[in-house]
Amino acid sequence: AGWQHSDSKWCRGHCTYFLSLTLSLTLTQQLSAQAAVEDSDQIFTELIRCIERRRSEVKELIRAQEKAQVSQAEGLLEQLKQEIAELRKRSTELEQLSHTEDHIHFLQSYQSLSSISVSSDLPSIVVCPLQYFGDVSKTVSELREKLEDFLKGEWTKISTTVNIVDVLLPPEPKTREQLLQYSCQLTLDPNTANTDLSLSKGNRKVTCTDQVQPYPDHPDRFTNRCQVLCREGLSGRCYWEVEWS
């Protein structure tokens, strides 16, 4: 029996280390990349949710402050209306009293009217809500600028980290035990076997015989050389073993 090693596109052999290794590393990189994408999506989703929560909290704070300011102003306005009405009433009574000719009645009534006091401790209110909420907008804008600057800096780090990701190739196997990790079983192609070659059941063994084998005609069959090819085609650098007897 004879085997020949060819430099053609399809190499015949027992194993292709680089092909198996490339497929393994490609799958590993794909799984690693997919995991990184999923983790990144989850982290950014949580970040967006955090920002949304803060946005809602700021909105609630502004609305609560607005409600408190409006409530305070409305309470003060109502108190002022009541006191203005009371002052107008007293002014009318004093005007009427000024026309009386009964001095005793005048003194008694004037003393009674004078006892009505106007509140002197009215609550103070800040009449500059636009400026107040303008400061809030300014603070939020500053936060946005700081966040954008921070993200720009971190994005540079992320981009650099992604770009330096490299495939760490394991050392090239040198011993037979190491090579067998990437081994694959090959079968012989009966359509290529020379008629002086006999193939075993399963097309795993070939024997050179003196009897012409009754193979059917096939365009791939060797006619001038006592050879047979593998059914599987391998490319690249290969290591293969053959039992010879």
UniProtKB/TrEMBL annotation:
<dbReference type="InterPro" id="IPR006574">
    <property type="entry name" value="PRY"/>
</dbReference>
<keyword id="KW-0863">Zinc-finger</keyword>
<feature type="domain" description="SPRY-associated">
    <location>
        <begin position="183"/>
        <end position="235"/>
    </location>
</feature>
<keyword id="KW-0862">Zinc</keyword>
<dbReference type="Pfam" id="PF13765">
    <property type="entry name" value="PRY"/>
</dbReference>
<feature type="signal peptide">
    <location>
        <begin position="1"/>
        <end position="33"/>
    </location>
</feature>
<dbReference type="Pfam" id="PF25600">
    <property type="entry name" value="TRIM_CC"/>
</dbReference>
<protein>
    <recommendedName>
        <fullName>SPRY-associated domain-containing protein</fullName>
    </recommendedName>
</protein>
<dbReference type="InterPro" id="IPR043136">
    <property type="entry name" value="B30.2/SPRY_sf"/>
</dbReference>
<keyword id="KW-0732">Signal</keyword>
<dbReference type="InterPro" id="IPR013320">
    <property type="entry name" value="ConA-like_dom_sf"/>
</dbReference>
<feature type="coiled-coil region">
    <location>
        <begin position="48"/>
        <end position="97"/>
    </location>
</feature>
<keyword id="KW-0175">Coiled coil</keyword>
<dbReference type="GO" id="GO:0008270">
    <property type="term" value="F:zinc ion binding"/>
</dbReference>
<dbReference type="InterPro" id="IPR058030">
    <property type="entry name" value="TRIM8/14/16/25/29/45/65_CC"/>
</dbReference>
<dbReference type="InterPro" id="IPR051051">
    <property type="entry name" value="E3_ubiq-ligase_TRIM/RNF"/>
</dbReference>
<keyword id="KW-0479">Metal-binding</keyword>
